[in-house]
Structures are given as structure tokens and as C-alpha cells.
Design goal:
TIM Barrel; 8-stranded parallel β-sheet
Length: 355
């Protein structure tokens, strides 16, 4: 949704909007499959002779438009199911990196819903294709990505082999230099973090960074479980931590960052559209927050729109820039990599009077 379609209390000036569009950005919470534009998935379906519930590209584009949570899940799974050939993974990555570059996103850490690809090809075949796509995308568009394979909790909470598959995928992705960690996503309710304690302990022991979706559709205990049971280093969403003051204090003192996606929260009903987003409460409580898109085509958004959503709710340019710097600080980068992006950020900051 456009930022003007949800709660807003401030006018976004053209000057501010232009700065937000131009600023170099880092994104930490975005799903690769959920970022693939409808034209790309439509072409995959046609090429792979996959039947869609529509007849034309325009109908498929309309099908992508968010209706409700169940519709979102249905479309997400269907869009993923059209990937039938290794070259589809190449096309998915290249399409993603092109759109990131168009938004001046210089680096992103990207969730891959690995559980949905388990029975398609060998891990090696999928990683070969993803590596090719990343190499092409980096050379053509100048942006960089690292993958975070994640467990779809509703498909694997009672299936140890399914969990181990994602762990092995994540380890091989890291060994190839295209992966950085392991995560967990999917339906929260009924699939508590504690069910994944063992596999996350293994991931950390083997050198993977670990993150977890929590505190989105489920409440504050979901976030607490991700911190205590999974030892998560970042929390995907986490906005419902505001329901527990002790948890807010724990997030503040531990400096565990939240990957906040405002438009996703509004679309999914986590936050009512006529109310301010709770990121203001989180920031004011001293919690480290970053700004992200989650699944941009499904929510008709992009990262610029996410920042402008907050600008329309009273966030100043300095505050927006700090949220972006939080993403740089929270990214799982090596010291050498971080210095490169730090210079890019410093150069931009120096060019903007008053920033």
C-alpha cells in the first residue's frame, strides 16, 4: 500500500521523499520468493506448464494484490511452486537484485523458504543456480546479497529430517560464500520456538548466524521464546514485544535488533491501518529497529515506501537515517565488508546538509 493509505499525521515533502529514494540502503528482512515480481513468476509458470487460477498476466498481477492472510499464503506457495527448473532460480535472483538496485539497496540479507524447495532438486543443484543468479546480479546491478535459508515452522515442527535439511542447506550455502545464517519463518501459532531449540543449537555450534520470525501473528511470548530457546541474534518483526515491558527492557539491554516491516504489519492486520505503527514505541523504548519490506509485491510496497510510511507518521530525516544505519550495524557482515558500506553511507551523509 502507498504510505498515504495508512495512518499518517505529517506531510511528506518532495525534498524528504527524494532524499529517502536516493539514500543507500540495507535491508535485512525480505523473502526471496516473496520478492519475485508477478511477471517473472507468470513467465515461469508458462514455461513450465504450471496451471494458474488465471488466464492472463494482468489477471495474475491482480491475483497478487493482498486480500487477507490466507490468500497471501496461498499466492506465496503457488508462486514458489512454479519454479520447476534450475534456471528459474537464476531468474528469481536476478529479478530480485535488479529491483533492489533500482531502490539504491546496496546490500540485503535475504530469506529463502528452503522447506518449500526440499523435494525439487538436490541441494547442490539449487545452490549452483542461486550462485549463478547472485554472480550475474552482482555484476549487472552492483548490489550484493547473502542468503538466510529458513525453516517453514508449520512444515517442520514435528519433522526433524525437514529441519536438518534446512540446516545442511544453510551450511553448504555458507561454505559457498552465498549464505550467512539460518532462520525460521512460517506460521507462528501452534509452532512455538521451543520446538526448534535443538536444530538452532546445532546451527550456532556450526558457525551459522541465527534469526527468527517472532512476535508477528503471535504475541510477546513468541519473541521471548526466540530469544531464550533459539538464542536468536535478530528478530524478524517482533513488534508485539510492546505487549510486555520486561521483554522490551530485555531487547533494549541485549541490543537484539528487530527487523520491522510496517506495510506488511498493516496488510496482515498485525497493526490496524488507522493507528500509528508501534515502531515509534519500540524506538522510544530504546529497542534497535530496522526497516524492511518482507514480501514487497504482495503488499504493493518497496523499501522507499516503508521509510515514507514512517515519515508520514512523524519520523524525522535524522531518525530515518538512523534506522538505516541500524541495518548496517545489525547486518551479518565481516569487518572488511562493513567498512565498504560504512564509507558509502558516510559519503552520502556528508553530501546531505543537516543530516
Amino acid at each position: 500500500m502507498h504510505y498515504s493509505e495508512v495512518y499518517n499525521s505529517h506531510v511528506v515533502t518532495p525534498e524528504l521523499a527524494d532524499i529517502v529514494r536516493r539514500m543507500p540502503k540495507i535491508e535485512l528482512h525480505v523473502h526471496l520468493e516473496g520478492s519475485t515480481d508477478p511477471q517473472t513468476t507468470y513467465e515461469m509458470a508458462r514455461r513450465n506448464q504450471v496451471d494458474l487460477p488465471v488466464s492472463t498476466l494482468s489477471e495474475w498481477q491482480a491475483w497478487y494484490v493482498f486480500k487477507d492472510f490466507n490468500h497471501f499464503i496461498d499466492v506465496y506457495v503457488l508462486a514458489t511452486s512454479v519454479m520447476k527448473q534450475p534456471e528459474d532460480y537464476v531468474a528469481m535472483v536476478e529479478s530480485y537484485m535488479r529491483t533492489q538496485a533500482e531502490q539504491n539497496i546496496v546490500y540485503s540479507e535475504v530469506y529463502l523458504s528452503t522447506s518449500l524447495h526440499r523435494n525439487k532438486f538436490s541441494i547442490e543443484t539449487i545452490l549452483d543456480a542461486l550462485s549463478t543468479g547472485i554472480d550475474h546480479g552482482t555484476r549487472r546491478y552492483g548490489t550484493s546479497i547473502k542468503l538466510i535459508p529458513d525453516i517453514s515452522r508449520h512444515l517442520a515442527s514435528e519433522d526433524i529430517e525437514a529441519q536438518e535439511y534446512v540446516l545442511e542447506f544453510a551450511l553448504q550455502a555458507k561454505e559457498r560464500g552465498i549464505g550467512i545464517g539460518m532462520g525460521i519463518g512460517g506460521k507462528e501459532i501452534g509452532h512455538e520456538p521451543e520446538k526448534f531449540t535443538h536444530i538452532f543449537a546445532q546451527a550456532k555450534e556450526k558457525g551459522l548466524r541465527v534469526v527468527a520470525h517472532a512476535g508477528e501473528t503471535d504475541g510477546a511470548p513468541s519473541v521471548a521464546g526466540a530469544l531464550d530457546a533459539l538464542k536468536a541474534e535478530r528478530i524478524g518483526h517482533g513488534v508485539r514485544a510492546i505487549e510486555d515491558n520486561q521483554l522490551l527492557e530485555k531487547l533494549r539491554t541485549s541490543r537484539i535488533p528487530l527487523e520491522v516491516s510496517p506495510q506488511s504489519n498493516y496488510c496482515l492486520g498485525v497493526v490496524a491501518r488507522d493507528t500509528p505503527h508501534p515502531i515509534r514505541t519500540l524506538v522510544d523504548a530504546g529497542v534497535i529497529c530496522t526497516v524492511n519490506t518482507d514480501d514487497p509485491p504482495f503488499f504493493s510496497t518497496d523499501l522507499t515506501n516503508e521509510y515514507l510510511t514512517l515519515a508520514a507518521q512523524g519520523f524525522s530525516l535524522d531518525e530515518l537515517w538512523q534506522l538505516n544505519r541500524n541495518a548496517l550495524d545489525a547486518a551479518f557482515l565481516s569487518d572488511d565488508e562493513r567498512r565498504i558500506y560504512q564509507k558509502t553511507f558516510d559519503d552520502f551523509e556528508a553530501a546531505i546538509p543537516g543530516l
